[in-house]
Write a structure and sequence with these properties.
By secondary structure, the chain is of the alpha/beta class. It has one domain: Metal-dependent hydrolases (TIM Barrel, Alpha-Beta Barrel), CATH 3.20.20. The protein contains 14 helices and 12 strands. It has a 4-stranded parallel β-sheet. A 3-stranded parallel β-sheet has the order 1-5-6. Strand 8 and strand 9 form a beta hairpin. Helix 6 runs parallel beside helix 7 and helix 8 runs parallel beside helix 10.
């Protein structure tokens, strides 16, 4: 049964399941063998990425696929019988049309009461690290991916589906050209993974001055930059703890990785604030998607101490800077009352993670979790509608 709030909501964390040719349809011929390929291994379709079998998604064809919300209770911390993941997944189903067709998705959104959504990758957020250190192949792969996305979904389809082009920063000049291309096609959001960036001069923080041309364009155009969880550089640290140096989406829940405290999203925003990115580019708007909100509390605790110890490196309290520039989409199972007190209602956005198994089967039911933490009807509308709609409109930098 579909929950029906009194308003049409805007979901800041919706996903497609990539078409099988999402990475190959527009790949430049010179990079075909260095980018992403399909192979038949042991009777199954597998992705070969960077010359290695990629295991980020167990079945990258997505047919069949898990039902939306199948792991809802698990992600709320409830598995009293200790069932294994295969049992919790339940019966898989054939891929639904709305996972790959934009008009079918609009019809599904109408049934769900959804006014609009940010539409984000499933496979895409796990491919960049697997392609590296081949910087040129990485850049070419995501150029191809974005052109597939534009063709199949569009970047502002009917002012309701806002697919976000994926930007890799590994080649700064290419990142600028990709953003220019996306802006010409009316993109409202772009997406990237958090963490340090591989470049031809070594690892660099994303706020390093070598990327200032990119951030200047994002600042001038007023596009919203989304950081989404995925395979990050932090996977390189895992072998030291006896874990694999790559991420398998659901197997990660069973190992030490689920307890590892290294948090790329927290460190990314900490570094942006420490290095003054938002002071250099005061019109930037960023959203943290599918990364929960526990990191916000940890970051603000560290910022409080840092500002007390070395206020001379900040032009203002960095917590206030963060609250001016960063929107957060908490997990529905998070401590939503504390987040409201910390950030205020204007910087919280809803994200259902539909149609993923770890998300909500009924995106509108997000309102129940807000109400459980005593959000007022007005606050529910702000979080579930107004804030997302605001971010979907580009806010160009005022000219002087």
């Amino acid at each position: 049964m579909t929950t029906q709030p009194s308003f049409k909501f805007f979901d800041c964390d919706n996903h497609y399941y990539e078409a099988e040719d999402a990475f190959t349809r527009y790949i430049e011929p010179a990079f075909k063998k260095r980018a992403i390929q399909w192979a038949q291994l042991d009777g199954k379709q597998r992705l070969i990425v960077g010359g290695r079998v990629n295991r980020f998604i167990p079945n990258p064809t997505f047919d069949p696929v898990g039902k939306p919300g199948a792991l809802d209770e698990y992600f709320r911390g409830r598995n009293p019988r200790g069932a294994d993941l295969n049992a919790l997944f339940g019966e898989l189903e054939p891929i639904r049309p709305e996972y790959r067709d934009r008009d079918a998705r609009i019809a599904a959104m109408d049934e769900q009461g959804m006014r609009g959504c940010i539409l984000l990758p499933t496979l895409g957020v796990g491919m960049e690290q697997a392609l590296l250190p081949d910087l040129d192949a990485t850049a070419a792969t995501f150029r191809a991916f974005n052109r597939w996305m534009d063709e199949d979904w569009g970047f502002a389809y009917k002012e309701r589906i806002f697919a976000a082009p994926y930007i890799t920063m590994c080649r700064p000049d290419n990142a600028v050209r990709e953003l220019e291309w996306a802006l010409e096609r009316d993109a409202r959001f772009i997406v990237m993974i958090p963490g340090p960036i591989s470049t031809d001069v070594g690892m660099r923080a994303p706020g390093d001055p070598m990327f200032d041309d990119f951030w200047r364009l994002a600042d001038d155009s007023g596009i919203t930059v989304c950081y989404h969880s995925g395979e990050t550089y932090y996977s390189k640290f895992m072998p030291a703890w006896g874990e694999a140096d790559y991420m398998m989406s659901f197997q990660a829940l069973l190992g030490f990785r689920s307890l590892f405290s290294g948090d790329a999203i927290q460190d990314t925003f900490a570094n942006h604030l420490h290095n003054g990115l938002f002071l250099r580019f005061p019109n930037l708007r960023m959203a943290a998607i599918e990364s929960g909100s526990a990191w916000v509390f940890h970051l603000f605790e560290k910022l409080t101490k840092s500002y007390g110890q070395i206020p001379m490196i900040y032009k203002e309290d960095p917590r206030e800077t963060s609250k001016r520039h960063v929107w957060v989409s908490p997990f529905y199972e998070d401590e939503l009352a504390g987040l409201l007190k910390l950030l205020g209602v204007q910087r919280i956005i809803m994200g259902s993670d539909y149609p993923h198994v770890e998300g909500l089967a009924d995106p509108a039911s997000y309102i129940k979790d807000l109400e459980n933490f005593d959000y007022t009807p007005e606050q529910c509308r702000t979080v579930m509608r107004d804030n997302g709609l605001e971010l979907s409109v580009r806010r160009p930098c005022p000219t002087t």
